Amino acid sequence: MRWNNLSxxxxxxxxxxxxxxxxxxxxxxxxxxxxxxxxxxxxxxTVVNEANEVLLLWRHRFITDTWGWELAAGVVExxxxxxxxxxxxxxxxxxxxxxxxxxxxxxxxxNGLTDARHHIYWSDHAEYTGPPQDGFESERREWVSLKLVxxxxxxGEVPAANMAAALLMLHHIRLG
Length: 176
Known about the structure:
InterPro entries: NUDIX_hydrolase-like_dom_sf, NUDIX_hydrolase_CS, NUDIX_hydrolase_dom. By secondary structure, the protein is of the alpha+beta class.
């Protein structure tokens, strides 16, 4: 039941994403016009300390008008190593520079609409370097016990699927 993308035409582009219109052939031979969003990779990072607390950002997302806990994240610049981008984003958004990063998982948050891949990393230590350069991106940054993560996700306090998946995976790795 494979769908085949026969061609794409650009509709709109900016430095963060492109909107294309694809001519898709369905398994029964019919054709479908399908809009899709092509995006740059996203790098995500956090740290879990010795007390099994994870560094989170409390932020508002105006598009959905929701508040929630997230990890530091941003787009990977052209030619930038993904892990380097994850470390950069974490330091810019939290004021903490991570130690060596470990790849946690890569997710496709909305693969029916976009090719976005979110590459999530974590470290088991970090160094505080001062107030975050991009402090405007979150209302606050806090160390939150990993023990609380499943209930936070269940209550909708981690609304972004990529962040929920990462936090539940960290909970599993560190607490079993």
